[in-house]
Amino acid sequence: MNTIKTGLICFLRGAWIAGTLPILITSLPSSRLNSFHALLLGFAKRGKIMPSSSHKFTVPQSFFLHFYLLAVVWTTILLMGTWYFACNVAPLRAESLSYPAAASHLTGGSHVFSLHKSRFTSAEDRFNVWKSVFLLLLMEVHVLKRLYETFCVFNYSSSARMHILGYLTGLYFYIAAPLSLCTFCVVEAVNFAADQVAEFNVEGQDVMSITNFDLRGYVKPMTRLGWCQWAGASIFAWGWLHQYRCHAILGSLREHKDQTVEYVIPHGDWFDIVSSPHYLAEMIIYAGLLIASGGADFTIWLLLVFVVANLAFAAAETHRWYLQKFEDYPVDRWAILPFVH
What we know:
- The protein is mainly α.
- It has helices spanning about 1-25, 35-45, 65-90, 100-105, 110-115, 125-150, 165-180, 185-205, 205-210, 215-220, 225-250, 275-295, 300-325, and strands at about 60, 160-165.
- The two termini are about 45 Å apart.
């Protein structure tokens, strides 16, 4: 199991580094990198900043829907499995430390719970399991909002396109990002679920009767999380709210999918400060997740670095497009980070 977990963590970290390095390289001030910058930009362009002459190897931008459908399904599976695992194997209760009592409570010949509990004997380990549940819950809130926005807020033009590599990157991102939030216990949670199914097939309903749903038991441990988790959740909520507001502003600029009017300069909320406030809000959302994680997981750090690098790269090009498109574009707007970029 440790080998599988180590392999998963190494793969995720390697992927985030591999996705970030090209963007960082193109940001170096060297004319020799111009062609590489143009190549990378060709993969990243979408929507209004993608010229009509560059539609080879592209898909409709409305395929963003696929990202969020996948994200909701996948995050829900991880959240339900990890939450169930946490309740049964890593309860944040003082009495959970009494394993003989726990074993007698579990009854009969079932070894599933005692076997998995023996791997999370410390209070810190159990706390980290519940922290993973909390992070996945925040991620679920985020992707549900993005799915709602795709259906009810945005009206993608039929001519809006994105590069196929950008599309595949998006699919990968919404598989890897939720996984990166729960690497501490996801392998154990999967094995626990598999063991439960296997033992149920052998011993029947008597084994599963100990897993009756207890809403209080599923929710109460959340109240025992630390200030760091709630501070991160507050930052997450701040970014989440402003991203919705900014997306609503963008969505209002195109009321119908077949609308072909000229683009206009968006105003309101953070649009009065930066050109891509929805990207800034996304950065804040993932910064909130990092803070809620406690900042000790290097995988989540790499996830945040990838998000920041990718969105800053896209925002810089969007800002250039606005400046070229509109002669009266506000000169005091930054690209994405006020007073920085």
